[in-house]
């Protein structure tokens, strides 16, 4: 047993609780939250190192043996995701300090922020399907608060939609878990996998698999269940938007990846065929949205949908190489989406509008912002040697190898359109003649730029260090493609 | 309109203590019998709500000058602290410990760390319920 595994969950929990006591003392809140975010990043880093060196880490909560109690399991994939989440949370937190405003800060913005991180880290770490639901709920509760906090008209409207969609999908989630439990009689994910392979995935389990796809598809915004996302993610301020766009949908994607590699891998012709078709449609819809809109926020939000499709296409192909590609792309996308959302947050703050037609010439006044955005945009599209490249190469190559020329072609083509959509932002916002913008208050652009600049630097390093990182990523993919490794680590047989 | 709530006020003064006592009984019964922090907390907040009905928010806040949002935090701290305490002793998160001791008057009594955890639940339930009810009540 290793106590490290609980720390990325425990630290945000305790921080959130302690911050409630200081709800009116904002400087203390900031100090505590920075310290504990740093601790969280460190513990996540140690955890990732421990997983890399000693294999999968587990912890049986309450000291109940594996199939009976709740088990926390940290394999390479979840350790990497927890680490990425912690880093992004730190960046968004630092960005919030100068942009979120007094009203939100004194009404529990920081505590709720940490509860959100708690839910995300928990969902990535848990090895129990019902506990996954619980962490989803923790995360969703926090996201409801973050979405509505501030109480502007658009926020209230979108929060109602968001809560409605998520309450329904949570209800479906419980029903799906209940169906699965009634068939296999266990909730421990490793044990479920073992039981399903014993009974050889009869038809009912395939039905449950599709049901799970429906549930996680709503959270992860795949076609045709993405309908709520463009509206809801549009409403909150930039750091919240970054947390949502970079992390929340990825929890859904992670859950699909986990269930479709660990549980439902016996009837791939049906389940993964379906996932493949849906992922391709998700890419197409995302690309259409990204090109069609001339609103910076909307363009980036539709790019979130494109990325979900690309990652899931790799999962659907289900070879070790394609899974490695998906893991590569997943982490890349979390980092770069957070950076982009924070960057457009600055742009919107400076110009006071989010329509690219009303902007122009920002490069003269804010060259740092412009070039950071440029690099981030290239990385998003996957221009070598930046971070999006390696993942896409692996996904496309394995797609071609498995004979899915259409899918691989669409993934390739989508990069081109993604590049077009972000370059549209770059050209319209940064080039041209500068305009006069009315700002209510001066924008601390240098401070705000720090967080996304560091994230972009991470993305660049992630791209340059692909070769060095490949063993780590392929370890994650190996566990995904061989469920026995996961099962043995949890049940210790 | 001025309502005559003399009977309600007089009765609730007496009933209040009975409810609180019973809720404490329920709370301590919780580990081996039906009950526990959740239902105990609900019952205690029921008592406070009765007071709110019989009198008004101002009177109740002078009697119980508690910030219920802080109470949630204290409760969470109890629960999370008990859960995390196990880590210091090298056992997994949430592991509990218990022992039996002979106390004067009570005889053989089991002391269980789950009570601390349940205290947390109790406080959180009161805090959340009262925060919700006060927030709704205040707007009138």
From TrEMBL, chain A:
Protein's cellular compartments: Cell membrane; Membrane
Biological process annotations from GO: ATP synthesis coupled electron transport
GO molecular function, one term: NADH dehydrogenase (ubiquinone) activity
InterPro entries in UniProt: CPA3_Na-H_Antiporter_D (IPR050586), NADH_UbQ_OxRdtase (IPR003918), ND/Mrp_TM (IPR001750)
Domain of life: Bacteria
CC terms in the record's Gene Ontology section: plasma membrane
Major localization class: membrane
Entry annotated with the keyword Signal: no
One Pfam entry name: Proton_antipo_M
Name of the protein in its database record: Multicomponent Na+:H+ antiporter subunit D
Organism whose genome encodes this protein: Mesobacillus foraminis
Automatic annotation (TrEMBL), chain B:
Residue stretches spanning the membrane: 12-32, 38-55, 76-94, 114-133
Membrane topology note: Multi-pass membrane protein
GO CC terms, sorted: plasma membrane
Residue intervals of the Na+/H+ antiporter MnhB subunit-related protein domain: 7-131
NCBIfam families found in the cross-reference section: PRK12573.1
Family membership noted in the UniProt record: Belongs to the CPA3 antiporters (TC 2.A.63) subunit B family.
Full protein name: Multicomponent Na+:H+ antiporter subunit B
């Amino acid at each position: 047993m290793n106590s490290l595994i609980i720390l990325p969950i425990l630290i945000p929990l305790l921080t959130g609780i302690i911050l409630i006591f200081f709800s009116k003392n904002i400087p203390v809140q900031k100090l505590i939250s920075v310290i504990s975010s740093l601790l969280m990043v460190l513990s996540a880093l140690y955890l990732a190192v421990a997983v890399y060196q000693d294999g999968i880490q587990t912890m049986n909560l309450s000291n109940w043996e594996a199939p009976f109690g709740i088990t926390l399991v940290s394999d390479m994939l979840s350790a990497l995701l927890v680490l990425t989440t912690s880093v992004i949370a730190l960046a968004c937190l630092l960005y919030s300090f100068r942009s979120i405003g007094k009203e939100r800060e004194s009404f529990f913005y920081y505590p709720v922020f940490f509860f959100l991180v708690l839910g995300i880290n928990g969902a990535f770490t848990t090895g129990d399907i019902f506990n996954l639901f619980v962490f989803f709920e923790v995360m969703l509760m926090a996201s409801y608060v973050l979405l509505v906090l501030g109480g502007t008209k658009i926020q209230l409207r979108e929060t109602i939609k968001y809560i409605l969609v998520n309450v329904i999908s949570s209800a479906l989630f419980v029903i799906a878990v209940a169906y699965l439990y009634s068939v296999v009689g266990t909730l421990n994910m490793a044990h479920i996998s073992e039981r399903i392979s014993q009974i050889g995935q009869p038809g009912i389990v395939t039905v449950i698999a599709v049901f799970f796809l429906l549930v996680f598809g709503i959270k992860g915004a795949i076609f045709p269940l993405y309908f709520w996302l463009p509206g809801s993610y549009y409403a909150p301020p930039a750091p919240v938007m970054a947390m949502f766009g970079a992390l929340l949908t990825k929890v859904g994607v992670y859950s699909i990846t986990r269930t479709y590699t660990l549980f439902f891998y016996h009837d791939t012709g049906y389940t993964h065929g379906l996932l493949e078709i849906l992922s391709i449609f998700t890419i197409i819809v995302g690309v259409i949205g990204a090109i069609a809109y001339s609103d910076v926020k909307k363009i980036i939000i539709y790019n979130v949908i494109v990325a979900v499709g690309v990652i899931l296409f790799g999962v659907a192909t289900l070879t070790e190489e394609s899974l490695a590609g998906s893991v590569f792309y997943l982490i890349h996308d979390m980092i770069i989406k957070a950076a982009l959302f924070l960057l457009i947050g600055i742009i919107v703050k400076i110009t006071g509008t989010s329509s690219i037609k009303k902007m122009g010439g920002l490069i003269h006044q804010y060259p740092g912002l412009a070039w950071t955005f440029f690099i981030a945009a290239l990385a998003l599209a996957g221009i070598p040697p930046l971070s999006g490249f390696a993942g896409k190469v692996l996904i496309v190559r394995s797609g071609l190898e498995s004979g899915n020329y259409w899918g691989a072609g669409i993934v390739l083509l989508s990069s081109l359109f993604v590049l077009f959509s972000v370059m549209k932002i770059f050209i319209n916002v940064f080039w041209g003649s500068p305009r006069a913008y009315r700002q209510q208050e001066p924008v601390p652009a240098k401070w705000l730029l720090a967080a996304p600049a560091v994230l972009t630097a991470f993305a660049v390093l992630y791209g340059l260090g692909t070769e060095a990182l490949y063993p780590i990523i392929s370890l994650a993919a190996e566990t995904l493609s061989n469920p026995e490794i996961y099962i043995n680590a949890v049940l210790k047989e | 309109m001025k309502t005559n709530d003399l009977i309600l006020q007089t009765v609730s003064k007496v009933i209040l203590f009975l409810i609180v006592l019973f809720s404490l009984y329920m709370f301590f019964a919780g580990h081996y019998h039906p009950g526990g922090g959740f239902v105990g907390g609900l019952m205690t907040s029921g008592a406070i709500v009765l007071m709110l009905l019989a009198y008004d928010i101002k009177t109740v806040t002078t009697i119980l000058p508690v910030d219920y949002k802080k109470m949630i935090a204290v409760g969470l701290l109890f629960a999370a602290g008990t859960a995390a305490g196990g880590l210091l002793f090298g056992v997994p998160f949430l592991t509990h410990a218990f022992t039996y001791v002979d106390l004067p008057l009570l005889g053989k009594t089991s002391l269980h760390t789950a009570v601390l955890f349940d205290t947390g639940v109790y406080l959180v339930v009161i805090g959340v319920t009262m925060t919700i009810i006060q927030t709704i009540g205040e707007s009138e």
